[in-house]
Amino acid sequence: MKPPSLGAVLLGFIPFVATCFSVALWDRVHPIVLGLPFNFFWLILWLLLTPVCMWGAYRLEVPRASGDGRGQGGTH
């Protein structure tokens, strides 16, 4: 089993950083976005963007996995 590529790891790490460590950047301001307080909007936004990041990481890993010789009759 190959370790994941750096790009896939970074794409997987983006939602974690955006939801956990960005609070200090916007916690002092309380604007309303689409009728929601910004902190709720931010969390809902990342709830929707996380699958997009995971899909991007998956798309980076598929070519690497298909090039490992599986499905060609080799013993692994």
Feature tags:
single chain, 76 residues, mainly alpha, two-stranded antiparallel ribbon, 5% strand
Number of strands: 2
Strand content is 5-15%
Proportion in helices:
55-70%
Question: What does the main sheet amount to?
Answer: 2 strands, antiparallel
Mean pLDDT: 81
Number of DSSP helical runs: 3
Widest sheet, order of strands:
1-2
Which consecutive residue ranges, at least 5 long each, have pLDDT under 50?
71-76
Order of helices and strands: HHEEH
Q: What's the N-to-C terminus distance?
A: 10 Å
Shape: elongated
What structural category do the secondary elements indicate? mainly alpha
**Radius of gyration in whole Å, from Cα?**
18 Å
Q: What is the gist of this entry?
A:
The chain has 76 residues and is mostly helical.
Structural topology:
Elements: H1 6-20, H2 23-26, E1 32-33, E2 36-37, H3 38-66
Antiparallel strand pairs: 1-2
Give an overview in words.
This protein has about 80 residues and is mostly helical. It has a domain at about 30-60. The protein has helices at about 5-20, 25, 40-65; strands at about 30-35, 35. Strands 1-2 form a two-stranded antiparallel ribbon. The model is unreliable at about 70-75 (pLDDT under 50).
